[in-house]
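sorry to bug you again but im stuck and you know this stuff better than me. below you get a single protein, a line of residues and a line of whole numbers that encode the local backbone shape. mainly i need to know what kind of three dimensional shape the backbone takes. anything you notice is useful, everything is just below:

***
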Amino acid sequence: MIGKQVARPFLQAIRRAHADAPAKYTGQTPTSFVQDGWASADGWASARLPFNVRNRYAFAVKAVLFLASGIWAPFLVVEYQLRKANQ
């Protein structure tokens, strides 16, 4: 009895939480342009990204700096700790 009282509202809440897709699906044909619906505003696939990717060279530099900082951060921390220990 208690299990039903707990499980039923929980399951109903889960069922109500799921909504239909915001974009209507239309089938793709072999010659049609790929339409993602929500992902491509103004015809640009990158329109909803939080950074600019239209200049590929600037984007490449930013991506390399971002990824390199994550790779080199542990090495810099260890070097700092070793120098601090030797003082």
About this structure: Residues 51-87 form one domain. The chain has a mean pLDDT of 75.
